[in-house]
Write a structure and sequence with these properties.
7-stranded parallel beta sheet, alpha/beta, 28 helices, globular, 49% helix
Length: 728
């Protein structure tokens, strides 16, 4: 491992434990073990994982795939890969989805058709040239008296006529000129440029646009046996995309090492990838496709799909209480249909309404007919008879129905119906969905088939829960806390009243919390990040501190700039406004986009406070997840609550605390404002023990009224105030 460190990371690391982490990860990869790696924010996790992974891959002829779901981290990966490339050349590719790299703005299905048609045209034109050359040579031979040559020329001319007919048909069809140029050129200059450095998708797009090429297809064809690929989660979590992705790499899964950043997000991302849905509009489109169709399978397909469509409408209409239908807006709203002791309401309504030869039989006929219709759409687009590549609604609806009937009663599958209002027509329509509660049905197969995986995050613990949820078998675990000087940080737990949902409107509770938040802002020499359980709570205290009137004072005797984030505002614009301020306070939700994946380095933020224990709203879906975990891990106390609610909430809280103190020279204060964080006896409501032990050891209980003195003394001792210390 020392060899690896000298080769790729020769300078002195500012992180004391980085060498140890590299060594342990290298040993785990040599043994083919998965790794759960927790490291505090700003402690060099990416290089700690990448360096040994790339060295292992080079020695064992494997490829490293590093992935994230955070755009900022993609940029960080590029920087880290470039740093490695400066020390020793590596072949690296940064891969994005087709939609972000397409020059003509078509969707995936249209792109596939255009690519196939274009390739056929280029191949036919090449064949035409060969046949023309052959017929000329045979003509010359026949003129010299070679009778056999004359006969062979007749056969060649027949082939030539057929090829010219195909070319004539295709030339009037839809093709992609960018991809055609790929096929006609040698592209040597592109690949020399690509591997001369670590190129971003944006750089590849600009190069391809300038040269009138398709950068996406060039990238796919140049990924074979590279050292490193940077990509998004969906390239690995979606089983269909993953299979293609490994083909592009020219690697069997066991020749791939995966590295997941922000790995605490894999659970929700995998759940999204596994869940499937079907809208009423798609069902209506399917019935329109089948109307009047001259095919023996059409009646059966229409019968089974109409019964499901009518059942869907019946269920959501029956689910409306008086006046609720009028309140439906443009956002999807769930109509619960699951039952504890029977099949779900949609399936029951479907079974009541259905009359036919058998659901399985007619659904299979609908799938077959849908495939036929889809092939017709393919040909129409390919031949230029259609300007866009349509997809069969019958096929989509029938495949979903087959999955619904097979899986909706399985453990971890939650059937649900949702409704929304169409913005254009103002009509309400529905959606059936199979929501996947247990994500390991997606992730376990991935981790089983690749050689090994490194999952890294600042908030992975407890490791046993992460391994259970994701389906990892006996992974190697390691955790490294903040390695910066302890005297440059404080973490206070302030015993404000517990912000239970039912108590948030209590005037005394609000007064106590508002007083503490005001002190945090006033006695922070710089910017303050404030995370609340929801945007509505953030807005409440923004208003109480003067967001709509006279703002609170700041540590320098002026007025603090109060910035309010929200679900309907430009978060990036608000973030920039906040970091540009010298004494600003940003009010936001812990469940928003600023709680993780965004750095507030140095003066960008000095103090961060999490106000309340920000449990998510426990809706029917979250209750279904709790129930699924209870059933899957029923031998453990409160497994559902712990796995589905408490641990994810504390992980989010820890992520929020990690927005400040990002380097050894940084300093700041983290505040947890709620009695449940303290040592006070709160019974089952206490969350202090959910934090890792070394983080608990840093928690300093503080009387809320005296927190300002803690801030004053800490920042004063560091000389952080301009001029004299503020007076409490």
């Amino acid at each position: 491992m020392a060899e690896t460190t000298r080769r790729f990371f020769p300078y002195d690391s500012p992180y004391p434990n980085q060498g140890e982490a590299m060594t342990r990860i290298a040993a785990a990869l040599d043994d083919g073990d998965d790794v759960l790696f927790e490291g505090a924010p700003g402690t060099g996790k990416t290089l700690s994982a990448l360096v040994p992974a790339i060295e292992h891959a080079r020695q064992e002829d494997r490829t490293v795939v590093i992935t994230t779901n955070v755009h900022q981290q993609m940029r960080q990966f590029v920087e880290e890969a470039r740093a490695i490339n400066e020390e020793e050349e590596i072949r690296a590719v940064v891969f994005k989805g087709k939609s972000s790299m397409c020059h003509i703005g078509v969707d995936y299905q249209e792109c596939q058709t255009l690519r196939d048609t274009t390739r056929e045209l280029v191949e036919d034109q090449a064949e035409k040239q060969e046949l023309e050359q052959q017929q000329r040579e045979l003509l010359d031979a026949s003129r010299e008296g070679d009778a056999a040559a004359a006969q062979r020329r007749e056969a060649v001319m027949e082939e030539l006529d057929e090829v010219e007919e195909r070319i004539e048909d295709v030339e009037s069809a839809n093709i992609c000129e960018h991809y055609r140029n790929n096929l006609l050129g040698d592209n040597e200059a592109f690949y020399e440029w690509l591997y001369d450095d670590v190129r971003t998708p944006e750089e590849i797009y600009k190069y391809a646009e300038r040269e009138n090429l398709c950068g996406y297809e060039l990238l796919k064809e140049g990924m074979e046996a590279v050292d490193l690929v940077v990509c998004n989660y969906h390239h690995l979590l979606d089983p269909n995309i993953r299979e293609q992705f490994f083909r592009w790499l020219d690697r069997e899964p066991e020749r791939v090492v995966t590295v997941f950043d922000e790995a605490h997000n894999i659970e929700s991302a995998a759940r999204d990838h596994a869940s499937r849905s079907l809208t009423e509009n798609t069902l209506d489109g399917a019935l329109d496709e089948l109307d009047g169709r001259d095919d023996s399978r059409a009646d059966a397909a229409e019968n089974v799909l109409r019964a499901f469509r009518d059942a869907l409408v019946e269920v959501y209409e029956d689910g409306f209480a008086f006046g609720e239908r009028e309140q439906v807006d443009e956002n999807w709203s769930d109509v619960p249909i699951a039952n504890d002791d029977a099949r779900d309401d949609l399936t029951l309504a479907f079974l009541r309404n259905y009359e036919g030869r058998g659901i399985d039989t007619e659904t299979e006929l609908a799938v077959q007919l849908g495939e036929t219709i889809d092939e017709e759409y393919e040909e129409a687009y390919k031949n230029g008879e259609a300007t866009s590549r349509a997809e069969s609604s019958t096929l989509a609806a029938a495949r979903f129905l087959a999955t619904w009937m097979e899986e909706n009663a399985q453990l971890g599958q939650y059937p649900v119906v949702s409704v929304r209002r169409d913005a254009g027509t103002e009509e309400v329509y529905g959606r059936a969905e199979l929501y996947t509660c247990i994500p390991r049905r997606v992730t376990e197969a991935l981790f089983d088939e690749v050689y090994a995986s490194v999952l890294m995050s600042a908030t992975l613990r407890p490791f046993d829960v992460a391994a259970d949820v994701l389906g990892l078998d006996d992974p190697v675990t390691m955790a490294y806390g903040l390695e910066y000087p302890e005297d440059r940080r404080r973490t206070y737990t302030a015993g404000t009243p517990a912000l239970f949902a039912n108590d948030r409107s209590d005037p005394e509770v609000q007064e106590s919390v508002a007083s503490l938040v005001s002190d945090v802002v006033e006695f922070t020499p710089g910017n303050t990040l404030l995370f609340f359980p929801s945007y509505s709570e953030a807005e409440r205290y923004y208003g109480r501190l003067g967001g709509s009137g006279q703002p609170v004072g700041d540590a320098d005797g002026g007025d603090a700039t109060l910035v309010l984030d929200g679900p309907d505002v430009d978060t990036e614009e608000q973030r920039e406004r906040f970091v540009e301020g010298e004494n600003a306070a940003l009010f936001t939700s812990l469940w928003g986009t600023l709680a993780e994946g965004v750095s507030f380095d140095g003066d960008d933020a000095r103090t961060v406070a999490v106000v309340g224990v920000p449990y998510p709203h426990v809706d029917d879906r979250l209750e279904a997840v709790q129930d699924a975990y209870d059933r899957a891990y029923g031998g453990r106390d409160d497994a559902g609550w712990r796995y589905a609610v408490e641990i994810p909430t504390i992980r989010k809280t820890r992520q929020a605390l990690g927005r400040v103190i990002r380097s050894p020279d940084d300093f700041g204060v983290r505040v947890l404002a709620d009695k449940r964080y303290t040592r006070a006896d709160m019974g089952r409501y206490s969350v202090r023990d959910t934090f890792p032990e070394e983080e608990r050891d840093e928690l300093i209980d503080m009387n809320p009224e005296k927190l300002k003195f803690g801030l004053l003394n800490f920042y004063g001792d560091l000389g952080a105030y301009d001029g004299e210390r503020p007076r409490p």
